[in-house]
Design brief:
With about 200 residues, the chain is of the alpha/beta class. It has 6 helices and 14 strands.
């Protein structure tokens, strides 16, 4: 029997249904998590995300999930997707300074690059520190759609080049994983990534 994967529902996260479908296609059992009780019933956590850092943190606080989620991601295998990865950081600077979940020592800042922003396209990843999540995906391309990037120096799992600017496209720290790209929009490579997460 597959362990239950809790998909955090915090209002703003507009890609929740496509992520649910992609995880199920990869063979995972998904439960939408909207409160503390539902969070305690799942074995793994996926934090989706579309929108702004500030709004995401506000939604988590308003839903009563903020503190329970901080505790749960210390012990349960967790995957943050796009904005879901960004809010794992200490601080975000989108629409003012906002505290994140603070589980990785990082800041989320605007991408400063001499090219079109948002970075919106399929792009490759350069795996810096191999891990189970990225296993077998070293030569794949994933779909990116973002204007901000995570700045961190200790938990980098993969980098991506955009117009000569290298930014963090995946992080890994203990039971915690994050990807800046959208696996649910990345065709078979994304399904394989979710399968790796299910198999953790």
């Amino acid at each position: 029997m597959n362990s239950a994967i809790g998909l955090i529902n915090y209002g703003i996260a507009g890609n929740i249904h496509s992520i649910k479908k992609a995880i199920e296609r990869a063979g995972g059992a998904v439960q939408i998590v909207s409160n503390q009780q539902e969070l305690s019933n799942v074995d793994k956590i996926v934090i989706p995300g579309v929108g702004s850092f500030k709004d995401a943190m506000k939604e988590l606080e308003n839903s009563g999930l903020l503190e329970p989620l901080k505790k749960a991601i210390q012990v349960k295998p967790t995957l943050g997707v796009c904005l879901g990865m960004q809010i794992l950081s200490t601080l975000g600077f989108e629409y003012g300074k906002t505290n994140g979940l603070g589980v990785i020592t990082a800041e989320v800042k605007p991408m400063l690059v001499d090219a079109k922003i948002p970075h919106m396209r399929f792009n490759g990843i350069e795996v810096i520190r191999p891990n189970q999540l990225l296993n077998g995906l070293e030569n794949e391309e994933f779909y990116f759609m973002h204007s901000y990037e995570v700045v961190n120096y200790t938990d980098i799992a993969a980098l991506t080049d955009y117009a000569g600017h290298k930014f963090i496209s995946a992080i890994h720290k203990n039971n915690l994983y994050g990807v800046q790209f959208h696996p649910e929009k990345s065709r078979e490579a994304g399904i394989k990534l979710f399968r790796n997460f299910i198999d953790l």
